[in-house]
Amino acid sequence: MGYCAAVLLAEAEPSAALASHSDNPQGNVRWGTAPLPLGLPRVGLTGLDHRGIVRPCQRPPRRTAPHQGLPMLLPSPPVPWPAPVLAATFLGRRQRFFADVRLQDGTATVAHCANTGSMMGLLHPGCAALISDHGPDSGRKLRYTLLALQTPGGAWCGTLPIWANRLAEQAVLQGWLPELGAVQRCVREQPLGHDSRVDLLVDADKQWAIEVKSVTLVQEQVALFPDAKSTRAVKHLQRLGERLAVPDHRSAQLYVVQRPDAARVQAAAAIDPDYAKALQQARALGVAAWAIACRVDADGVHLLQRLPVG
User: What is 161-307's CATH number?
Assistant: First the structure.
């Protein structure tokens, strides 16, 4: 089975999209998965019910392999999707904000694309997609939102940048970042300087300002940020470095990789050499750099494992 047909079994074989209750006690669902890169666990299987709504395969959590002494935790509960999830086929992207998709019944429609970056390596017409259905009476201009795309290697990648912030908050509160110490409070979107804001402000043994970056580009198991030149990201690193001058204040850059097929994270120097230089300078000043890989399924996005940065 090709990667684009991973969960879209009904599109090619409508009659095969249903399975009997005797074969599958969880309901009329045909289970399927796309091949994952060698060495990666098969997690996040999905199925389709008779309406094309995706359902997750229930599996016990597995321990993840640690990287270079990083903490090993069980995969977390998901940060859930904002609305019921449908399987679809991705057709193309227009004007950054519009994703053309085809529903399971063959209807072509437009979904909102919240990711305004380049989405390098993800925009393959014909690949499988997950979209949220907010209903015809939601008052939104676009009923659907693009949630995730399946890569040629079979991995699912989340496409909602704001989900990275929610995953980062979950990581702080659930102990994925022991470098923080004993966390007492975690607050979103706080002022940092006179013209900037920080994604998370954490009161722990020290006060930590954490800037969160959503990462979707992976090449040869290396997650790369940014996927396009970003003067804003460079400015954020500079602000984190300046904060270190304040006594008992610390700062960190947290990369949330919204896919499971990366082994490490590094700055995309070939795409944005200014950012790569700024990251190197910030780390030399004492800014911490952390990364967490995630997996995507029909429930939402799960924290999966810590990754090294460098």
Answer: 3.40.1350.60
Chain center to CA of 279: 21
Dihedral angle computed from the Cα positions of residues 29, 30, 33 and 34, in that order, rounded to the nearest 10 degrees: -130
Q: At what angle do helices 273-285 and 231-243 cross, to 10 degrees?
A: 10
DSSP 18-58: ---TTT-TT-S-EEE-PPPPTT------EEE-TT-BEEEPP
**Buried b / exposed e along 114-132 (16+ C-beta atoms within 10 A):** bbebbbbbbeeeebbbbbb
Residue-wise pLDDT tens digits, 215-270: 999 999 999 999 999 999 999 999 999 999 889 999 999 999 999 999 999 999 99
Other beta carbons less than 10 A from residue 174's beta carbon? 13
Model-level pTM?
Answer: 0.79
Q: Which two tokens stand for residue 11?
A: 């599109």
pLDDT at 211 over 70: yes
- Reference 96, options 106, 75, 111, 79; nearest CA is 111
3-state secondary structure of 9: helix
